[in-house]
Amino acid sequence: MAPHLLLVLRILFFLTGVSDTQSVSTVSHVSVKQGGSITIPCLYNQRYRNNVKYGCRGYNWFGCSTVVRTDHPKTSGKTSVSDDINQRVFTVTMTSLSLSDSDYYWCIVERKSKADDGDRLQISVTPGTPELYVDQQQMTGVVGGSVTVLCYYSSQGSSGKWCKMGGPCVVVGLSGALDGTFVKLVQEHRETTNGYVLMVTMSGLMMKNTGWYWCEKGKLQMPVHITVNQSTTTQSTTISPSVTNRDNVVTNENTDEKPQSLLEVLFIPLSLLVVLIAVTLVTLKMLRKHKDKKAKDQPANTSVPADPEKDITYSTVSYIRGTAKQDLNPERHGDLYSTVIPMQHRTAQRAAEPDDVVYSTVAQHQRYSRSQRTRRDVGGNTG
Residue 238 has what DSSP assignment? Predict the structure, then answer.
């Protein structure tokens, strides 16, 4: 489109308002500290998904100067632009802001056959504490959980608000539903800084709650983007990152914690029990092995009793053979006679004798008949 024709169309648009100004919308006024950064969201209609978007600086739209465009390198100096066609939002981010950056800016969608469409906002850069600010513009939550945003402002003035970009708002003291989720607003006074804080808590988050919101106080707004993710077993149902407020006090806004699963609760006790059983089994095995080794290494008991002669019996054996005239009764042949000497009487006798010797006295006697014994005795007497 020729520059002169484009300028004419812009003038016509500004004078007649023929364009649908509701097709592009953004915040109206933001306050930023010198040296800080700001991200400005620009919501556009579904029919502009494939159109070129750009940021422009100047009070009047037809006389503004383009800062950055989506069809050019998306970064120009300290300003960048990105386009999320699914959320139908393109954002302009400005960093390292200086006092000279205070001005009016435009979010514009380029249209080929018609005048461009856009909306205007004001950026005020201040050397001190901004009139309305947040610790971070990006927050994250999980489905079914909650998220808390802290909005700081310097004066009480009018009631604070929490608004969905392109949607309704919730006012302090009138907590209610917003985009299908419950919203609670609490306003507190901070004596240390003589300022105020607006605590915004969104509970029962859903995937569709992902998008841009803003805190509003008087004529000022501060945009905040909330991303809602699917919950996992390791995530808490309440995701509210710890933030450092301007009182330099770290606060954790998590109020509801997801109950731990049964497996997580029993994991440590079960692990300790398994370790204890393993140590016990190893110890028993080592003790048994040591005992078997000790029994194997112990020498056989070959010692003899202290007094081996207690079990020894000494005897004198006599073998009696009968004569030829003796009765041949088989029961009378081969009779053995022994004289048993008790051990206590034999001990003294063997005191001087060598060990390991078996002693026996054998005497052979002839057995005579009664008549022969009589003749022998008579002959002996006569002799």
Answer: B
